[in-house]
């Protein structure tokens, strides 16, 4: 394959920083460290069964290691978490890290002075897909560390990470699919990079990514339909009713069960993704985690002209209450997300007329 004249990720970042004369280059260095971690994880994923990192972590009589989420950890969850930690802990760029796979914030070794950023990540999203060779990814969010952490060099606490998504300095994900891609926003739109496996470089392949405002494609786990709240049920019923229903057009449906892959499809061609708050388990207000799933993906969507919401308010405006807080999440094409928000704000909707999702249907008890 001939060497193209496309920009590398490094060149892109240098150009972006020109907008901020006097910038130290620390953010660029941090993003490049994250990208390097993602390349290492991409290799581990690509080797599959041959690399010895498939299957559940530390399989035992109970079926495997359980993480803070109460979920069985895959070996690759653990490996990916280690890769993120080892690549970033000594860089001098961070004041602390937090991950889906660690109950508490990770303290940067050494002491004063601390770096000025916090790194929050889901080292491997879509874990349930690892063993069946379906796309998975890593999601990351970069926040500023509070001033007193930087000045005093004190250890970070959970509270330091509880910043609304709107304050993210940068966010992105790597997708380990047929090709490995890195999608990134440093607050000036969204750019996409494809890993050239020969060179080991992320090359700029998608400039100024835009999510179309309208779509005919939605994604939701229909096995949860009996737990949905009325506005969600109404929205899905109307999509299913297609051309003969109130929407007057047919919709298609997708469910990969790997949010990072769904987010990528939506960045590329539009669509709407829903993992809404539901009544399945009152102790869990949603499935996805705010700090390292909803916020970074929400940042990318908004930066690409799409929208991300809890269904009731913009996701980026939510003040987090916990490191591993779960939340209802709807994102994608702007007009669809706004419609879903409208349904949440309208008075209780009537029971649907659609037989598939009505009280005595296929998808109900
Ligand atoms: O289809 P399910 O089982 O409800 O869950 C799918 C969701 O779970 C997730 O895989 C959760 O992420 P993790 O793999 O990081 O735990 C999301 O990516 C996805 O949207
Ligand atoms: Mg995840
Ligand atoms: Mg994960």
From TrEMBL:
<dbReference type="InterPro" id="IPR033391">
    <property type="entry name" value="FBPase_N"/>
</dbReference>
<feature type="binding site">
    <location>
        <position position="221"/>
    </location>
    <ligand>
        <name>substrate</name>
    </ligand>
</feature>
<dbReference type="InterPro" id="IPR020548">
    <property type="entry name" value="Fructose_bisphosphatase_AS"/>
</dbReference>
<keyword id="KW-0963">Cytoplasm</keyword>
<dbReference type="InterPro" id="IPR000146">
    <property type="entry name" value="FBPase_class-1"/>
</dbReference>
<dbReference type="InterPro" id="IPR044015">
    <property type="entry name" value="FBPase_C_dom"/>
</dbReference>
<comment type="subunit">
    <text>Homotetramer.</text>
</comment>
<comment type="pathway">
    <text>Carbohydrate biosynthesis; Calvin cycle.</text>
</comment>
<dbReference type="GO" id="GO:0006002">
    <property type="term" value="P:fructose 6-phosphate metabolic process"/>
</dbReference>
<feature type="binding site">
    <location>
        <position position="122"/>
    </location>
    <ligand>
        <name>Mg(2+) 2</name>
    </ligand>
</feature>
<dbReference type="Pfam" id="PF18913">
    <property type="entry name" value="FBPase_C"/>
</dbReference>
<dbReference type="InterPro" id="IPR028343">
    <property type="entry name" value="FBPtase"/>
</dbReference>
<dbReference type="GO" id="GO:0000287">
    <property type="term" value="F:magnesium ion binding"/>
</dbReference>
<dbReference type="GO" id="GO:0030388">
    <property type="term" value="P:fructose 1,6-bisphosphate metabolic process"/>
</dbReference>
<feature type="domain" description="Fructose-1-6-bisphosphatase class I N-terminal">
    <location>
        <begin position="7"/>
        <end position="206"/>
    </location>
</feature>
<keyword id="KW-0460">Magnesium</keyword>
<keyword id="KW-0119">Carbohydrate metabolism</keyword>
<feature type="binding site">
    <location>
        <position position="124"/>
    </location>
    <ligand>
        <name>Mg(2+) 1</name>
    </ligand>
</feature>
<dbReference type="GO" id="GO:0005829">
    <property type="term" value="C:cytosol"/>
</dbReference>
<keyword id="KW-0479">Metal-binding</keyword>
<dbReference type="GO" id="GO:0042132">
    <property type="term" value="F:fructose 1,6-bisphosphate 1-phosphatase activity"/>
</dbReference>
<dbReference type="GO" id="GO:0005986">
    <property type="term" value="P:sucrose biosynthetic process"/>
</dbReference>
<feature type="binding site">
    <location>
        <position position="100"/>
    </location>
    <ligand>
        <name>Mg(2+) 1</name>
    </ligand>
</feature>
<keyword id="KW-0378">Hydrolase</keyword>
<comment type="similarity">
    <text>Belongs to the FBPase class 1 family.</text>
</comment>
<feature type="binding site">
    <location>
        <position position="122"/>
    </location>
    <ligand>
        <name>Mg(2+) 1</name>
    </ligand>
</feature>
<feature type="domain" description="Fructose-1-6-bisphosphatase class 1 C-terminal">
    <location>
        <begin position="211"/>
        <end position="344"/>
    </location>
</feature>
<feature type="binding site">
    <location>
        <position position="125"/>
    </location>
    <ligand>
        <name>Mg(2+) 2</name>
    </ligand>
</feature>
<protein>
    <recommendedName>
        <fullName>Fructose-1,6-bisphosphatase class 1</fullName>
        <ecNumber>3.1.3.11</ecNumber>
    </recommendedName>
</protein>
<feature type="binding site">
    <location>
        <position position="293"/>
    </location>
    <ligand>
        <name>Mg(2+) 2</name>
    </ligand>
</feature>
<feature type="binding site">
    <location>
        <begin position="125"/>
        <end position="128"/>
    </location>
    <ligand>
        <name>substrate</name>
    </ligand>
</feature>
<dbReference type="GO" id="GO:0006000">
    <property type="term" value="P:fructose metabolic process"/>
</dbReference>
<dbReference type="Pfam" id="PF00316">
    <property type="entry name" value="FBPase"/>
</dbReference>
<dbReference type="GO" id="GO:0006094">
    <property type="term" value="P:gluconeogenesis"/>
</dbReference>
